[in-house]
Amino acid sequence: xxxxxxxxxxxxxxxxxxxxxxxxxxxxxxxxxxxxxxxxxxxxxxxxxxxxxxxxxxxxxxxxxxxxxxxxxxxxxxxxxxxxxxxxxxxxxxxxxxxxxxxxxxxxxxxxxxxxxxxxxxxxxxxxxxxxxxxxxxxxxxxxxxxxxxxxxxxxxxxxxxxxxxxxxxxxxxxxxxxxxxxxxxxxxxxxxxxxxxxxxxxxxxxxxxxxxxxxxxxxxxxxxxxx
Length: 228
Hints:
- By secondary structure, this protein is α/β, with parallel strands linked by helices.
- It has a single domain, classed as Uracil-DNA glycosylase-like domain (Uracil-DNA Glycosylase, subunit E, 3-Layer(aba) Sandwich).
- Helix content is about 40%, strand content about 10%.
- It has 8 helices and 6 strands.
- The chain has helices spanning about 5-15, 20-30, 70, 80-90, 130-145, 155-170, 200-205, 210-225; strands at about 50, 55-60, 110-115, 150-155, 185-190, 190-195.
- It has a 6-stranded mixed beta sheet, with helices on both faces.
- Helix 4 (about 80-90) crosses helix 8 and helix 5 crosses helix 6.
- The radius of gyration is 16 Å and the shape is globular.
């Protein structure tokens, strides 16, 4: 049997229907979009990771947004969180442009791969524990297929927890369970887990997360990954 590739994994992720609640929600969101997206055809399927197959940095989010990635077909694309994230990724040298609008918008990333713990948009952005657990093997397999990754940027506490679980599945454990925090670091096996507040409107509008704060995380990720 030929070894698995990222292309193989992408095809499997896209066809997944393992979580009935999430399948129903992503399809309901597509069938009843807000007026500003009424003319658009929604992706309404799970989202695979994407980016540089030789990446040394993996950025992990919670899950696609109902009218963001669930609409466009690419994680952190077409919503305010993606706007905030990719502006930072452009400033810090990971992204070719500061906007992420659609999969055919010309955006490329270098040294970076982007994924999420849960691959379908969840109601209220809150996946259930069993949904997380069914989806987590995709992240584990991505890490196996991205052998150059040395830094995992966890965008939020949910992503931090999911990344820790994935790393543990690969056989690496920290002596004590690391606590999430902005710019917190944990060295586990071959990885450095690096925390950032999630670039959600809840955080950016309240200035819990500012552009310089997110830039500091991504600059630190470059340093840890020896990309400069």
